[in-house]
């Protein structure tokens, strides 16, 4: 579990890290350099979940050596609602969600901590407005959890 007291906000108690794959962990289906190592470090304290439409069909293979659960969403259903339901079932207040797309906005808004990333594939307006924090790269997002004083400085009121 990840615990962090945020001045004038309260205590964050994160048990689960829920991530999108395409545009968040990866670019064009390729996991960004440094991400696997950071996920392995975070998996010591958090249960990691990757919830994705898997546009390029590479998520499970790309993450085979990472201690995480990969959940592929069915193509015919509303992915934003499925991601929200996934987060709610984990206990939203104990989830850190990271994403970049329109289909990530509901989970970013509902999670105890929502982080939006703006990488090469861009970020939707909905994700931007739903997140608590915006970062320029997935490695920066993961570093907020690995180096929590950064997060404390960003979120205090």
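-> sequence recovered:
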């Amino acid at each position: 579990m990840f615990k962090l007291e945020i001045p004038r906000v309260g205590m964050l108690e994160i048990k689960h890290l829920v991530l999108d794959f395409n545009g968040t962990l990866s670019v064009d289906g390729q996991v960004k350099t440094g991400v696997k190592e950071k996920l392995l470090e975070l998996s010591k304290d958090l249960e990691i979940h990757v919830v994705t439409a898997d546009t390029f069909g590479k998520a499970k293979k790309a993450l085979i050596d990472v201690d995480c659960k990969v959940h592929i969403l069915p193509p015919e259903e509303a992915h934003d609602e499925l991601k929200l339901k996934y987060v709610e079932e984990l206990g939203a207040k104990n989830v850190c969600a990271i994403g970049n797309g329109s289909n990530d906005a509901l989970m970013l808004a509902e999670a105890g901590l929502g982080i939006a990333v703006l990488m090469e594939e861009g970020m939707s307006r909905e994700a931007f407005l739903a997140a608590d924090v915006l970062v320029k790269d997935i490695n920066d997002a993961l570093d907020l959890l690995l180096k929590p004083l950064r997060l404390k400085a960003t979120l205090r009121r």
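The first strand starts at residue 2 and ends at 6.
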